[in-house]
Amino acid sequence: MRFLQTLRNILSSRLTGFDEIQNFLDATNDPIFVLHRGELIKNFNRQVTELFGYDKHDLVESSILKIIKLEYVPHVRKAIEEAWGCKPGCKCPTFDVSVITKDGRDLICELDLNRTEYGIQPHFRDATEHRKRDAERELISNINKIIASALDIRDVYKAIAVELGKRINFDRMSIALLQPGNNAITTYAAVTSYGFTELPEGGSYPLEGSILEKVIKSGSPFIVNDTSQQKLTTDRKLFKEGIMSRVAYPLIYKGQIIGTINLGSRRVNEFGNNQVNLLQQIAPQLTIAIENSKLFCKIKEWNTELERIVEERTRALNAANIEMAKKNMELERANEELRSLDKMKDNIIRDVSHELKTPVAHIEMAMALWAEEVKKDKNSREKEEKYRRIITSNIRKLQKDIKGILHLSILESGQFQYKKEPIHLEELVNQVVMELLLLAEHKGLILLTRIPDHLPTFKGDREEITKVIYNLLDNAIKYTEKGRITISAETKEKELEISIEDTGIGIGVPKDKFYKLFERFYQEKTRSDGIGIGLAICKTIVDAHGGRIWAESDGKGKGTAFRFALPYLNSAQNEQVG
Amino acid sequence: MGKTILIVEDEKDMHDLYSDIFEGTDYNIVRAYDGDEAFEKLQECKPSIIILDIILDLVPGDTFFMYLKSMSNEYSGIPVIIASSLSSHSYRNLKEIDPHLVFLEKPFTRERLLKEIEAKLM
Asked: How confident is the model at residue A190 (pLDDT cuts 50, 70, 90)?
């Protein structure tokens, strides 16, 4: 613009001599032509000769289009036409053209066509530098794009190497980062044009003797023009692989040098301001990318940790769910059991009421029939005896059942106080045997007692234990038609085991259901003692004494053994009790 | 020769009472002590009517009844009187199988039983 102003000043002072204009034109830094007619060159300055190589006789009175590359000719011709149409002093838009130099090179220039009173003045500016700046801008923009889009820092490094490679010559690029603790370096993305490198990617080496150390000390970029002088430890290494010159540019984050971007060349003196300037432009973005990547790695770590925690929690939750499902199943099973208990309760009420009602019905019907007989005066001794027997036996049965129910309900009420008196088993068994001997003999059964001498004494409720033995022996007699019944006792470790074995009808239910015999109101019809309560009473009493009771049988018709075991006292306790 | 009555009852006392009830009547009495035995006797004596208790050993009365009614031969048509000390309410489902089923709750009188049997055999 200053040039135009000067030009106008000159023109306004009505200077007419071309020499003066020539002097002025020569004083500018750019090639300028003067067209006096159409595209014909009237004159030009010496910069035209310097830059394009043409002399006056090459171009004067020739068309300017002669030096314009063919593809730009139509545009230039049109622009010149339009410029001739303008008033003097008018400036036409700038555009790029390619000029063919005398030695045949293409030179990109910006072209201004200035309309003056002397004609058109095409003013060329060498755009190579602009182009270079544009390319640099493009490079930085590309790198920034890569930095912004790449998640893996290694991709950033590689892309930077590619982009830088378009602008400057180098054979090796690496990023060196200070390790925490600041005395070692990690090399990243050692990109080489030759493959092998002494300082490979991921390698770690001491800070001492490295170019990074130099950079940190000086706080500025560091250039090694000739590694053959081997001033640095790393120079020696890189020299071996053919790197002759090096440059390192600091990567500064929050005022601290965190590392360098390094370039190496197989030529000496390869690096200068040009390269340093370029590195300067990408270093801040690269630093941010590195820090981002560190952050990203941290986030990734956190994520992994979070995923691990989530997975762990999920596993725990699943375990809890499985546990819950199990609990649900247990609950369902418990419910099922409750339902079946409920059904059992209904059955029990039904069966118990049946068992209580049946003898009453029998008594009532026997009495009615007896009364009829009496009324008809047909009363025979025989029938009278029969009715009396039916009535008596059913009353006894009723009494026994009712007594049993009452007994069990007292035992199970929790109010019952068992006595704790020393019991001599032999004495007690003999007492029961005496009571039932007649009944057994009446059925032709042999009753054997095998109680060894000097059985240990145990503490318990004599009356209740007597009831247990009585019940078991009574049952044995009831369910044995022939053979014998044996009552025996045996001293086991800590327990006294009492058995009542018979050769009777046996037990018809499967062995795994034997325990049910001891449940209240359980009736195995073939060996039902009325309402099925006798064995339940036995179990309640034995349990209360800390003992156990069980049945053994090889099946129907094969006899039965009922056994119960009671813990006995050791000799010291015996003395105390005694 | 009178008609045969099959009595299915687990208690000997009750069988004795039935004998007295039918003493002096024209009926033949056949005793069975459980459902299993009742099936055997059924084929032997071909009864005109069955008196059935519910609580029986092995095969209980209700099972025997349902089995009898599901048979495809002439036995399924044999009239049944259930005589039990259980309340008839618990066994009302049996009435759905045979609407003519008579349920006698123990104790019952001789007259009542004979009347029911006569009604069935008419």
From this structure: low
Which residues, other chains included, contact A325 with Cβ-Cβ below 8 Å and sequence gap of 6+?
none
Cα separation, A477 vs A446, in Å, equals 10
* Mean pLDDT (whole number) for B2-11: 92
Neighbour count for residue A222 (Cβ, 10 Å): 22
Q: What is the ipTM of this complex?
A: 0.84
Domain coverage including residue A175:
132-299
Q: Are residue A425 and residue A531 in the same domain, yes or no?
A: yes
- A476 within 8 A of A507, measured Cβ to Cβ: no
- For residue A198, the model assigns a pLDDT of 63
CATH of residue A496? 3.30.565.10
Beta strands in A386-483 (DSSP E): 421-423, 446-450, 458-460
Query: Average of pLDDT values for A179-208?
Result: 72
Looking at the complex, report in whole angstroms how far the Cα of residue B109 sits from the nearest Cα belonging to chain A.
7
A97, A157: one domain: no
Contact residues for A530 (Cβ-Cβ < 8 A; gap 6+): A355, A397, A400, A401, A404
In the numeric block, the tokens 């220039």 are attached to A109
Query: A282: domain CATH number?
Result: 3.30.450.40
- Of A126, A143, A165, the last residue of a domain is A126
Pairwise CA distance, residues A208 & A192, whole Å: 23
User: Given a cut of 90, is residue A43 above it in pLDDT?
Assistant: no
A368 touches chain B (CB under 8 A): yes
Nearest to A362 among B17, B54, B58 (CB): B17
Check which CATH number belongs to the domain holding A113 and give it: 3.30.450.20
Domain extent at residue B67: 4-121
| Both tokens assigned to A382 | 């025989």
What is the per-residue pLDDT across A206-255, written as a single tens digit (0 to 9) for each?
888 888 888 988 989 999 999 888 888 888 888 888 889 999 999 988 88
Taking contacts as CB-CB distances below 8 angstroms, the residues of chain B near A357 are 85-86, 106
Asked whether residue A453 is domain-assigned, the answer is: yes
Rg for chain A, CA atoms, rounded? 60
Q: Which of A257, A282, A299 is the last residue of a domain?
A: A299
Contact of A351 with chain B, judged by CB distance below 8 Å, is answered with yes
Q: pLDDT by residue (tens digit) across A262-299? A: 899 989 999 988 888 888 888 887 888 778 777 777 77
Instruction: Please tell me the total count of domains within chain A.
Output: 3
